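worker-03 picked up job from queue 'complexes'. Input manifest follows; two sequence lines, order preserved.
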Amino acid sequence: MTAVHIAGRGLACALGLDVATSLAKLRDGGATAESRLLPGGLGGDFPYYAIPYDLPDWNERARDLVLRVADEAGARPGGRGALFIATSSFDIGAVEPAAARTYAGDYRAFADTVAGWLAWSGPVYSISTACTSSLNALIAAQAVLNSGTVDEALVLGIELENCLTLGGFAALQLLSRTGSKPFGVHRDGLVLGEAVAALRLSTSTSAPWKILGGANVVDGRQSTGASAAAIERMYGQALATTGLAAGEIDLVKVQAAGSPGNDLIEADGLRAAFDRLPPLVSLKGALGHTMGASGAAEVALLTACLEHGAWPRYADAVDETLGVNLATEAPNSVRRLMATVLGFGGSHTTVVLEHA
Amino acid sequence: MNTFLVSGRCIAAPPPTDWREQLAVMLGEKPRRIGDWAELGLYGALRCMADAGETTLPHDTVVILASEHGPHAATIAALEQMHDDLPMPLTFLQTQPSQLLALLAARMQWQGNASFLAGTELQSMLFLAATQAGSGGLLLGWVDEMDGGLTHWLRLRPCEAKGIDFKPAFAVEIFSPQVSYLNIAPKSLHIARSNQHCIGGRGMER
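worker-03 finished. Artifact:
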């Protein structure tokens, strides 16, 4: 199998418009969530992690952010590699509810638009597996790169503010009204956020981090929640795919979005998968849950954190009854890590990264 | 892996007028609250599985579902509900195409790798699927609810290419009922008709 390196990364999120700014903000205590007012009896004010970049037109804002992160990741205009677009909400944010009937919902048109912004000339794939979209895009990109047909791929996670996602999560009563508390004793729901992230993958350019493999396990028994058995299987498959033992994993970036039920299930799955748990980290308190972009955004931020010595802080003490803990500082040495996202549609996904 | 036997298929564009009744029979009850697009997808997938003589999938099968518009009607309905209130929870769930993957996995009591590809060109989708296929092969679906509806599904099992007389083909030809074998390359597709020997694949003598 050919080594697939993360040759470049770009990130626009609530912390900042690039990786360096985001790291500085993280060191400075992190971003402050804004507030979003939603209508109806279950509505009200909800915290939300917005990208600090204002433009009135949704498409112009999306284009600017995509171009910024692609450039930061070192993707050249007119790329001939494979482009993987990962999103759960596509361009739904460009449509106001009053004009719902005008929504074309044309996935190919959206992919063509994004590819057009980048003047992309290679194959374009658009993957949507809800919150796990960009991790599944990474796994798919690795498979295409290993086929030898291209030597570069760009994974773009795109999740921008829209009323439907916020409203849908509020309707399902999954949102916190107080803040993000991963594995926290006072956790009361998710805090959503937006992010645009780019990971440039290469088989021809050497770089510190490489993707060893991953696993995606769909379990349909709980379509909006995680399954401990599926989590255990996901980690087991990822280890088997990469030929690693559980003891060779130095860090796991968990989902831990602050959901009372799902955090408990995730902790159960982690304890089942690892006889001895490696250090755990969650970035949801730093970025919010950025849905389909979260895999790419969190891999970009986490690898930068490990390289530059930054680390997230948590707003709440870890719930001891979960039987897991979150590392409060970066482990001394991280050679191999797993980055995990759990999502709607019963999707449980992890990728394994190795540092040279 | 790049050579596959078509061991089952459902080609329905449009689906038969009684497809909802057929789905209810296959499920043992009327599906409830999953949305038209997901029902249409489930109908095609279960017909394809029945055609392949399978009720579930090997654990290392890769499922890839594709669509040009996904659950479009549910998305518009949820957006309209947002005009002055939150969307109905089930309507919002119906806007997520990956919900169909969960429904399918639950129906087959299967856990495995399943993804949704949005608006991706057919040839690119086939190639991506081939790069990810394991020994359990692939279950591929294309579902759209517009223009009368479409639900195409193929169950593909890996096999040896030796001895099969492949011909170049356009990607859309995979939906022909006569096609029994596919050979998938990055930018090209070759197909073959039945009555060919295939090692490791299920026979086509139906």
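worker-03 released lock.
Residues 196-206 of chain B have pLDDT under 50 and may be disordered.
Chain B touches chain A through 54 residues (CB under 8 Å).
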